[in-house]
Amino acid sequence: MTELSTPSGLERRLDVAVPLKDIEGEVVKRLAQLARTVKIPGFRPGHVPLKMVAQQYGPQVRTDVIGEAVQSRFNEAVRAQNLRIAGQPRIEPAAGAAGESLAFSAVFEVYPEITFGDLSGVSIERPQVDIGETDIDRTIGVLRRQRAAWNDTDRQAQDGDRVVVDFTGTIDGVEFAGGQARDFTIAIGEGRMLPEFEAAVTGVRAGESRTFPLEFPADYHGREVAGKTASFTLAVKRVSEPALPPLDEEFARAFGIANGSLEELRAEISQNLELELARKVESVVKEQALAALRAQATFEAPRTIVEAEASAMAENMAAELRQQGMKTEDLKLDVAMFRQQATDRVILGLALGELVRNHGLAATREQVRARVEALARTYEQPEAVIRWHYEKPERLTEFETAAVERNVVDWVLKRARVIDRPTTFEALMGPARV
Q: 235 and 354: one domain?
């Protein structure tokens, strides 16, 4: 007996009954088979009384038979009903028919009917950038700063300088974990510190001290200080300014230009910027296309899969924070914090899968090969890089994923309204910093 019902939304309840005579018959059959080989002290193999075998192994055999029967009946019912199960079913016992059958219910979710709205009204901006001499000059400036020598100075600290400080932070007059450091280097303008810190060291001189308030963001990774206001006192030990290397043949050779030609260095930088630009444009367009696809995907996400994704996200975040030195007992990450993001991920993933299956958007060998070759061209021995990637199929996974995403993005772009928006390399990439 099999009966399917829909308690709500994507949830299904499958009521199944298995005749007890079938279960008991299988238990007897397996015990008889076991009696031929089981070893019990005092009996030769194959001569152990069946009653003794049943006493010792009967409960486990019966449990195994019931489990297999339940799974088998469930699988048969799923195939018969043509159901696509999302996640693992929850098996619950139910009242059987007066000792004649074993009744159980399987509660589970099914995958939704996936539908998409009209993409013709969606606008996607595609950046249009021409790389010029100014962009190459800016990149050379970054390369020079990377190879700069650092000299102590008595002047006030300014953007681009390095400041070495000792600092101590307190909240309500009490020092807190991670709020103290000695000989700590702050690079002004790189954005690696909270804005209040950079503001506090801008304009200082070696030997000076400053006290300033700092309000930690509400979403700061250190939960014990998140959203709180601390008072920091810092002592400036050293202010250093960069001394840039001269732009000469030696500088060009340092970046692989054997003949020291600055023109060849500029040409290579230009090529690299073009590759960087292409990747950035692809990323910007992809982000908009996938966001549009998510917005037009009008279907419910299975709760089971969402919860699994949210739990995985919480575990990954906890692992990252542990790597940063936080103690496990301080990691009180609520799965609910990740539920909305997990929902978006699941819906987008189901939408992508539907498009790939129904519109022939799977990655082709040629597309994967092209992406591997594009990466290989950035190395000195491209052929060796290509061979390494093709030695093991799993090394191609990220290229296959990227090719599929590109196919989906192209599918969206054919249906949406694409607007070419002129911009500059710096505006698109952000200011270049060391």
A: no
How many C-beta atoms lie closer than 10 Å to residue 330's C-beta?
12
Block residue for tokens 């790189």: 190
Q: What is the pLDDT of residue 187?
A: 92
> Which residues does residue 285 pair with via DSSP β-bridges, in sequence order?
none
142 assigned to some structural domain: no
How much is the pLDDT for 217? Answer: 87
Residue 218 is assigned to a structural domain of this protein: yes
Cα(109)–Cα(90) distance, integer angstroms: 10
Distance between CA 270 and CA 139 in Å, rounded?
Answer: 9
What domain range includes position 299? 123-130+250-429
Q: Quick count: other Cβ atoms within 10 Å of Cβ 206?
A: 17
With beta carbons less than 8 A apart as the criterion, state whether 93 and 108 touch.
no
- The total number of structural domains in the chain stands at 3
* Mean pLDDT to the nearest integer, 59-86: 86
Other beta carbons within 10 Å of 75: 11
Could you give the CA distance from residue 320 to residue 300 in angstroms, rounded to a whole number? 30
What average pLDDT does the segment 212-232 reach? 86
**219-241 as b/e, with b when 16 or more CB fall inside 10 Å?**
eeebeebeeeebebebbbebbbb
Would the pLDDT of 50 be above 90?
no
* Rounded Cα–Cα distance for residues 33 and 31 (Å): 5
Q: Is the pLDDT at 433 greater than 60, yes or no?
A: no
Place of tokens 């367009």: 285
pLDDT per residue as tens digits for the range 305-350 = 999 999 999 888 888 877 877 766 666 678 888 999 999 999 999 9
* Measured distance CA(292)–CA(351) in Å, rounded: 11
Phi, psi of 158 (to 5 degrees): -140, 175
Beta strands in 154-282 (DSSP E): 162-171, 174-187, 209-215, 229-243
CA distance linking residue 287 with residue 376, whole number of Å: 25
CA distance to 29, 30, 37, 349, per residue, from 49 (Å): 14, 14, 12, 57
Neighbours of 265 (CB within 10 A): 22
**Rounded to whole angstroms, how far apart are CA atoms 201 and 39?**
80
For residue 93, give the 3-state DSSP assignment.
Answer: strand
pLDDT in the model for residue 250: 95
The helix (H) or strand (E) run that includes residue 213 is strand 209-215
